[in-house]
Amino acid sequence: MKKTVKGIWWAQIKAVIRLEMKKTFFAKRGLWIYLVAALPVLLFIAYAIATSSQQNRSASVARQGVKRLAYQDLLAVKPGMTSEEVMAILGKPPITFHWTEDRPTQDGTNGSIRVNHEDFHYSDGQNDLFVGLANGKVESLNIRQGINLGQDSIMFAAVFQFFFLRLAVFFGCLGIFMNLFRGEILDRSLHFYFLAPMRREVLMAGKFLAGLLATCTIFGLSEVLQTIAFVWHFPPGVRDYYLYHNHGLEYAAIYLGVTLLACVGYGAFFLVAGMMFRNPILPAAAILIWEGINPFLPSVLRQFSVIYYLKSFCPVDIPASPGTPAVFALLISNSNPVPAATAILGILIVALIALYVSSVQVRRMEINYTTE
Amino acid sequence: MNDRIVFEDVSKFYGEILGVNRINLSIPAGITSLVGPNGSGKTTLMNLMTGLVRPTRGRIQVLDYKTDDPENLFKILGYSTQFDAFPKGLTGFQFVYSYLRLAGRTSESAEQMAWRAIERVNLVDAARRNVAGYSKGMRQRIRLAQALAHDPKVVVLDEPLNGLDPLARSEMIALFRSTAAQGCYVIISSHILHEVDVISDQVILLSNGYVVAEGPIHNVRSEIQEHPTQILIRCSQPRELAAKMFEYPQTIEVSIHKDEGGLLLKTRDADRFYLTLNEMAVNGIDIESIAPADDDVLSVYEYLIGNEEAVR
Amino acid sequence: MAIYRRNYKPYAGPLTPAWSRWFILFRYSRRNLFRSKFMTGLFVVCFFYPMLCLLQIYLAHSVSFLEQIGIPSRVIAIDNEFFFRFMGVQGVLAFLMTALAGPGLISPDLANGALPLYFCRPFSRAEYVLGKSSVLAILLSQMTWVPGLVLFAMQASLAGLSWTWSNLWIAGSLVLSSLIWIAILSLLAMALSAWVKWRIVAGALLLAVMFFGAGFAQAINTVMRAEWGHFFNVAYLMTTVWNSLFRVDTEHAIPVVEAWIALLVYCAICLGLLMRKVRAYEVIR
């Protein structure tokens, strides 16, 4: 008999999911969530296009050069060298640019002196060196690196942690999960579910799973596409090295896992918020701030936050650039990471607590549509 | 086994606003109409009965089930609300079918039951169209189909005749009657008093959140003492009959009908009047017919709730 | 035969002057806004920092008291950076206030189909927008440039004519910075509120424009190794403009002129959205 009841519950959950899927995946109102998920993908596609075009340009500059250069050759040029010394090391520059400047004199008078500038552009086929000469001497050096797996990994990690996870997934979950109940109250259609011979907890579970399915699909897919866009422009050899010998695939799997866990954690939070508050903007803002100030909280309070656990999973540490204020450095740092099992358990416990509160709320819920 | 819908000292307040207060009801099978002006608490009473709102005080039981047990309650109860909103993007058929799937029915059985319910409300042709494009009457009918789809024992219908054309009204009234004839509990709220009068087995009159009267309409009428009962008598000698009537102290007023073929009498004691009338008939006055003139919902409504509130 | 009784007589009494008619909307919307105790509470909280600043100005001029408690008087400097900080704090509060109050101005009218009712009166779309935006404009003014000028007046009265004369531009900067921020916030809130119709969603969108926009801007800058991402960060653009108006020395990733232009473009886009949505009729597809 028990099995039959569970069978009915499962059938009801599936029915709820089927109905909700239409709403979350195909509603015009939810299009912005696709946009939010697509933005980082578009960003990495733009990056891939820009980098590929830069690589082509670097290769073309290298071909035009009289000498075949190595990266070490580019580093050999130092400020103060003469143009002849530069050319002795790197050869005649493939691309030059001449211009003049009337520079104010340093002695405090209003006079100016004319400075002849020459800009040299060299390339080793991957990296570019821009040499700025003023009156025949090297005044500025700018190396634009081509593919740098280390830096690119950090860049990907930074975008993932600070944009995708904290903002895109956060706002996406906010849109989908808060809409599950609050949206129906605003549409005045929640009674449709409440009139079915179904436990309210089963309804809540169905709606939560529907939201989870939608967010995991949308943001999981986004994460996979980001990774594809990110590695797309690497030359095949570099790509294989990154994916199979430099933890590339492992990282991609971890990022995907973190994304899915984020959907679970934020989803549960916003489900409760959508039920408890008539205007969920205030709790949403509060959660956003709470997640933001997480590094500054005492360790006990830190555990009641989704980002605390998610950060522990992120495989690449983002180093604070020199001159970063201490406050921001703390925000970036991943001190005291929690073991993976604890983190997963932590998120699941936080989610379960949130779901328990939701189930209490949904039982108490009344249909009393007011003017929203 | 409880065979009634029971309200025990039920009150519902929305903050400081009174929904219904101190309601005690015991509703038997058959068609029961909730009658009352706007804001009298009809919808609140229905929402309480179906668990959509919880009572601030008191206890409600629908047959064997409490209203906070939707899993079992809605197996025997169908509710057609007056909320005119539907889940987005559904066709009429999907609306009923999805409801049955939510109830845990298999795809085949849900489909079969959905079509049967749609047929009952005569909406088969439009069932494949999106509900958003339905007229008000069609939306009303598809809600009825949803409420009836799982063959519930208790059917609660909030203003079910609103927006229906005369033909559809008579079809729906026939449907309510046939449902009640099968031993079901049909609870209807309506403003259209003459229709309520025709179909109801019992009425519940509500005003300002209070039940002002309940029971079969004739019983309710007979208990209203401050308004004399009006009786229309058709006879060949109305003037003679009128003169005789004034001999009895229960008679308050008699007026001769315009066509001189009868009279309208007002009395405080209808039972004693009928006995008296029998004696008169024996004494040679030819009486064609006797019918109560104010033994209907409209009159009762006017007496108890007030003329100004009556919706005609 | 049909009988037509001519009972209806149009209103023939005096009308409110056309120039002040938008004020009706302001009055009712404001009254509606302050029905919420939370809103009233937040409005009061918005004056805590100005009060603190007032105290700071007073202390800065009480040299003997500062000496008594061992604080050098130069620690509390009342200069352009002081007013820039004031603007920063009040600007954040103004944003919060807008996120709560702004979305409810137009969306209920649109959601309930009330616009035809407005526009069947002698009431133009511009007057409608003016009336609604004046609620935010006046509310936010009370939190930004009005207390700012009070602080300036207090400092001027304590510091003397010479300080006032040489720092008069700060008063202008206060007003101008506030007005452009108020314009941006009001237009954004109203445009989003008109666009999505849902008060709550409009509020969420406003949060998203600020927070998500800032994050997206940073992501662009990180990935593309560029600075143009800042154009998506309204708060950054505004800070750049404030920096220049208050003559605070900070390096800007984008030129001030471009920041001004970007802000004006945002305003124009919002106005465009408003004009598209605030109409007496709606095309339903």
Q: Order of strands across the biggest sheet of chain A?
A: 1-2-3-4
The CATH architecture of the largest domain in chain B is 3-Layer(aba) Sandwich
Q: Kindly report how far apart the N and C termini of chain B lie.
A: 40 Å
Most extensive contact: A-B, 32 and 32 residues
Largest sheet of chain A: 4 strands, antiparallel
Number of structurally distinct domains of chain A: 2
CATH class of the largest domain in chain B: Alpha Beta
- SSE pattern of chain B: EEEHEEHEHHHEHEHEEHEHEEHEH
Task: Name the helicity range of chain B.
Answer: 25-40%
Distance between the termini of chain A: 44 Å
Average pLDDT value of chain A? 85
Please name the fourth-level CATH homologous superfamily of the largest domain in chain B. Answer: P-loop containing nucleotide triphosphate hydrolases
What would you call the structural class of chain B? alpha/beta
Helix segment tally of chain A: 14
Strand tally of chain B, please?
14
Based on CA atoms alone, the radius of gyration of chain A comes out at 28 Å
Structural key phrases:
heterotrimer; A: 372 residues; alpha+beta; Beta-lactamase Inhibitory Protein, Chain:B, domain 1; 4-stranded antiparallel beta sheet; C: 285 residues; mainly alpha
Short characterization:
The complex is a heterotrimer of chains A (372), B (312) and C (285). Chain A has 372 residues and is an alpha+beta fold.
Task: Write up what this structure looks like.
The complex is a heterotrimer of chains A (372), B (312) and C (285). Chain A is an alpha+beta fold and 372 residues long. Chain A is built from 14 helices and 4 strands. Chain A folds into 2 domains: 2-54 and 148-364, no CATH class; 65-144, Beta-lactamase Inhibitory Protein, Chain:B, domain 1, CATH 3.30.1450.10. Helices cover 66% and strands 10% of the residues of chain A. In chain A, helix 9 packs antiparallel against helix 12. The longest helix of chain A has 39 residues, at 149-187. The radius of gyration of chain A is 28 Å and the shape is elongated. The model of chain A has no long low-confidence stretch (mean pLDDT 85). By secondary structure, chain B is an alpha/beta fold. Chain B has 2 domains: 5-217, 3-Layer(aba) Sandwich (Rossmann fold), CATH 3.40.50.300; 228-293, Lrp/AsnC effector binding domain/regulation of amino acid metabolism (RAM) domain (Alpha-Beta Plaits, 2-Layer Sandwich). Chain B is built from 11 helices and 14 strands. The two termini of chain B are 40 Å apart. Chain C has one domain. In chain C, helix 8 (125-143) crosses helix 9 and helix 11 (168-196) packs antiparallel against helix 13. The A-C interface holds A 36, 39-40, 43-44, 46-47, 50, 155, 158-159, 162-163, 166-168, 171, 174-175, 182, 186, 279-282, 284-285, 288, 371-372 and C 99-100, 108, 112, 198-200, 203-204, 207-208, 211-212, 215-216, 218-220, 222-224.
